[in-house]
Amino acid sequence: MFTGDESSNNLTNALYAVGFANQPFSISKDDGLKLFRVYITSAVKCAPPQNKPNKDEIINCSTFLEEEVKILENAKVYIAFGKVAWDSIIYVFKKIGYSVPNVKFYHGALVKVTKPDMSIIWLIGSYHPSPRNMKTGRLTMNMLVEIFSTAKKLVSNKERIT
What we know:
Number of strands: 3
Low-confidence stretches: none
CATH superfamily: Uracil-DNA glycosylase-like domain
CATH topology: Uracil-DNA Glycosylase, subunit E
Shape: globular
Structural class: alpha+beta
Strand content: 5-15%
Distance between the termini: 32 Å
Number of domains: 1
């Protein structure tokens, strides 16, 4: 996932900038990249035509995402890269009983999510680190680093956001 392409380089560079990765690049599965306190997945596990999954593909793959969320029960922050990821994780959160306010996707969206045990987790929205988004300036490296900086503050409880 996110290895050996421009999206990977953009993502890994930003992770490295805030201390979530040991190096600023990922070119192959054997390149020595180590992630710290980070798990990367995708909402859709197949490669749909034009990289645009339809609603059925998203729903069919949601069971895998749901299992990942359950396994990562101690996760404190989720970052959704793009609207498909945003809608997918919210769908899964609601399906497993999390309370999620209705917030539309936008870059920098920050949503407080309440789990059934009343603990709080966070969802952050970001534009996808695709070459297209980076080349057009829709997403810059500074914007991406800021997303991870916010996540790091939330995980470390160094910033209280209500």
